[in-house]
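lol so apparently i was supposed to do this last week
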Amino acid sequence: MALYNDQGIVLRSYPFGEADKVVVVLSPNRGKLRTVAKGVRKTKSRFGGRLETLTHVDLVLYEGKNLDMITQVSIIEAFPTLRGDLDRVVAAGTMIEVADFVAQEDEPTLRLFLLLQRGLRALDGDQMHPDLLTGYLLKAAEIIGVAPALTHCAGCGANDGLTRFSFAAGGALCERCRTPGSYALRDGLTAYLALIATSDLSALPEPDLAMSRESLGVTRRFLEYHLERGLDSMALIDV
Ligand SMILES: [Zn+2]
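anyway here it is w/ zinc ion bound
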């Protein structure tokens, strides 16, 4: 039996046995890690509130047969600001849901971990940027390998006359490549999305509120199409 050290962001937890919890953590080194926190549901747990969802924690774990057991926890970053605001909680929940769905067990996932960490940091700032969640979803799509074509036609590669958009075809389409299921996006929206996709989450361009809503709607549906599932956390967002 071995002790080891790891870190990660708590994605979720659920009751296990009488007083324990399974805590699912996104580790940059091990991907999705299912761990057990013993006695965490007792009022006098030695872990306190340190294993709350969204918290970035440093862990000492005891290797178990099925699940590894948490023996020590310390908080690296708790993101306290985002927890007090419903819009941010919903955005954070969506970020977590996507990371949880995409990450695999025993598969290092540094890029996904860093994306989630940067997303939560940006959400924890003074103000929530209206395009932050859109940026996160576009970057997640890139990590998964389903980034939409935004600066060129997904059919022929042409980089102008991108008048149509198609989920199935993989993004923007020119007039010649248009497919029956494709539709016209608002003028400038593809370019707006392209700018968000290439910007750092902490340095997103000045938002254009007329574009923001539609950007999030298109990005959400694009990702849902390629993940083949709806994003439940976004049920509260009207896009
Ligand atoms: Zn084309």
